[in-house]
Amino acid sequence: MTSLQRPMMIGKIHRATVTQADLDYVGSITVDQNLLSAANILAGQQVDVVDIDNGNRLTTYAIPGEAGSGIVAINGAAARLVQPGDLVILIAYGMLADAEARTFAPSVVFVDEFNRIVELDSDPGQAPSGSGLKTSAVPIDRPLPARS
């Protein structure tokens, strides 16, 4: 008997500001190590980058940048799709067994305009109070994920 595996969002960095775009780089997205850790995203892990400003969506992999720097740098060909100053959402997914997927608490990281963490949550559809963002989601009552 095979176990059902579900691709689930395991981490998200919401509304980060792109600090640089470098076309002459091998590829990937460089992200402040503090943000990656808070979102439970590992170096080399596949991430989707969703550009709020222009609607572009791309898949790449994360590489850690200097902790505390606020860096969110688009590298390589993706620099044609995302520009410095654009707001982006980084989303990491993982394959979870069906039972685990039903109770798993993802790591959701909200940042300010300088890519500093302002709020941590585990509800993928939650909007932080006072942010001006809206949600159509019903709140999910889960504990915050354990941080290592």
UniProtKB/TrEMBL annotation:
<keyword id="KW-0963">Cytoplasm</keyword>
<feature type="binding site">
    <location>
        <position position="60"/>
    </location>
    <ligand>
        <name>substrate</name>
    </ligand>
</feature>
<dbReference type="Pfam" id="PF02261">
    <property type="entry name" value="Asp_decarbox"/>
</dbReference>
<dbReference type="GO" id="GO:0006523">
    <property type="term" value="P:alanine biosynthetic process"/>
</dbReference>
<feature type="active site" description="Schiff-base intermediate with substrate; via pyruvic acid">
    <location>
        <position position="28"/>
    </location>
</feature>
<keyword id="KW-0210">Decarboxylase</keyword>
<comment type="similarity">
    <text>Belongs to the PanD family.</text>
</comment>
<dbReference type="GO" id="GO:0004068">
    <property type="term" value="F:aspartate 1-decarboxylase activity"/>
</dbReference>
<feature type="binding site">
    <location>
        <begin position="76"/>
        <end position="78"/>
    </location>
    <ligand>
        <name>substrate</name>
    </ligand>
</feature>
<dbReference type="GO" id="GO:0015940">
    <property type="term" value="P:pantothenate biosynthetic process"/>
</dbReference>
<dbReference type="GO" id="GO:0005829">
    <property type="term" value="C:cytosol"/>
</dbReference>
<comment type="subunit">
    <text>Heterooctamer of four alpha and four beta subunits.</text>
</comment>
<feature type="region of interest" description="Disordered">
    <location>
        <begin position="121"/>
        <end position="148"/>
    </location>
</feature>
<keyword id="KW-0865">Zymogen</keyword>
<comment type="pathway">
    <text>Cofactor biosynthesis; (R)-pantothenate biosynthesis; beta-alanine from L-aspartate: step 1/1.</text>
</comment>
<keyword id="KW-0704">Schiff base</keyword>
<keyword id="KW-0456">Lyase</keyword>
<keyword id="KW-0068">Autocatalytic cleavage</keyword>
<dbReference type="InterPro" id="IPR003190">
    <property type="entry name" value="Asp_decarbox"/>
</dbReference>
<comment type="function">
    <text>Catalyzes the pyruvoyl-dependent decarboxylation of aspartate to produce beta-alanine.</text>
</comment>
<protein>
    <recommendedName>
        <fullName>Aspartate 1-decarboxylase</fullName>
        <ecNumber>4.1.1.11</ecNumber>
    </recommendedName>
</protein>
<keyword id="KW-0566">Pantothenate biosynthesis</keyword>
<feature type="modified residue" description="Pyruvic acid (Ser)">
    <location>
        <position position="28"/>
    </location>
</feature>
<dbReference type="InterPro" id="IPR009010">
    <property type="entry name" value="Asp_de-COase-like_dom_sf"/>
</dbReference>
<feature type="active site" description="Proton donor">
    <location>
        <position position="61"/>
    </location>
</feature>
<keyword id="KW-0670">Pyruvate</keyword>
